[in-house]
Design a protein that fits this description.
- It is a single chain.
- The protein is an alpha+beta fold.
- Helix content is 40%, strand content 29%.
- A hairpin with a 2-residue loop joins strand 2 and strand 3.
- Helix 1 packs parallel to helix 2 and helix 2 runs antiparallel to helix 4.
- The longest helix is centred in the N-terminal third of the chain and has 18 residues.
- It is globular and about 40 Å long.
- The model has no long low-confidence stretch (mean pLDDT 87).
Length: 131
């Protein structure tokens, strides 16, 4: 799997049963031509952590994933349109924050409109730099 859409589809399948138990569903709007050239395993691990947290908190909602590329930076966005506790989600994402930072990425959580939570994961699509 070399593109982000494929990686996310594989990860969504592992979180599907919990989403269904919570009466939620996924929409993957990530372009199919968005390649991930480096750090695939780490990126997949961060995304899996995000999905696990969001899926565990989301009830009766749509969880929409999208992504866009800006030069060598990819921004993955997860939009959850239900009623969740964003503070609790942020607390559970500490490990994902740390892992994102290790690959030069960044996580942010915002609640721009009541009952909407947006999580953004931006990361460089470049070779890893030795720490």
């Amino acid at each position: 799997m070399k593109n982000l859409n494929q990686i996310v589809n594989r990860l969504l399948s592992t979180h599907l049963s919990l989403a269904e138990r919570n009466h939620s569903f996924f929409i993957n709007d990530i372009p199919q031509d968005l390649p991930i050239n480096h750090n695939r395993e780490w990126i997949a691990s961060v995304i899996s952590g995000l999905l696990s947290t969001v899926t565990g908190h989301a009830k009766n909602t749509c969880i929409r994933l999208s992504a866009r590329k800006h030069d060598q930076i990819i921004v993955l966005t997860i939009l959850e349109s239900g009623n969740t506790n964003s503070y609790a989600m942020a607390s559970e994402l500490k490990q994902a924050y740390s892992l994102a930072e290790k690959i030069g990425g960044c996580l942010s959580i915002s609640v721009p409109v009541m009952d909407n939570t947006t999580i953004s994961f931006s990361f460089p699509n470049l070779p890893a730099v030795a720490a």
